[in-house]
Amino acid sequence: MYERRRRGDSFFEKILNYFTEMRREMDEFVESMFEAMRFSRPDWDVETCCIEPLVHVENTPESVIVTADLPFVESKEDININATEDMLELLAEMKKEVRFERWGTIQRETTFRRYHKLISLPEKVLPQEAKAIFKQGILKIILPKKFKTTPIKVE
């Protein structure tokens, strides 16, 4: 019997390993669900009249590209962008208010006058070399990565 245990795991050890692995996978799944849902705060702030714009973050080999939809923002002078190595803050003033009436069960009326969004960047960037282009309500921010990869040719 001693040799049998030495050669491989016993039946009970195999079951224990199976359930341990299953628990680890379930923990990872639950964590990823909470990360995806981000119930921590809403997409608007009624007190400051701010709403979050729709944003797309693209991670390319050379840079991180952030594209934001900013309807009712007319010029680049109405936009403020603050960037660090790993975070981007976007503020923009609307020329036309967005008003919601009969919105939700408690909130009956609210007006939004500006956009505000904090965006966590997927990789470290060089904020001092960033470029931004605003055209027809679409803001595109190109942030070069801090560590660029250089392909090396094998001879």
DSSP, total strands: 9
Number of helices: 2
Residue share in helices?
10-25%
The description of the largest β-sheet is:
5 strands, mixed
CATH third-tier fold name of the largest domain? Immunoglobulin-like
Distance between the termini: 58 Å
What would CATH call the architecture of the largest domain? Sandwich
Query: Gyration radius, to the nearest Å?
Result: 25 Å
Rounded mean pLDDT is 84
Helix-strand pattern, N to C? HHEEEEEEEEE
Number of domains: 2
Low-confidence stretches: 1-5
CATH class of the largest domain: Mainly Beta
Structural class: alpha+beta
Shape: flat
Largest sheet, spatial ordering of strands: 1-2-7-6-5
Instruction: Report strand %.
Output: 35-45%
Describe the protein.
The protein is of the alpha+beta class and 155 residues long. It has two domains: 36 residues; 101 residues, Immunoglobulin-like (Sandwich). The protein is 21% helix and 39% strand. The chain is built from two helices and nine strands. It has a five-stranded mixed beta sheet with strand order 1-2-7-6-5, with no helix packed on it. A four-stranded antiparallel beta sheet has the order 3-4-9-8, with no helix packed on it. The longest helix is centred in the N-terminal third of the chain and has 27 residues. The termini are far apart. 11% of the residues are buried.
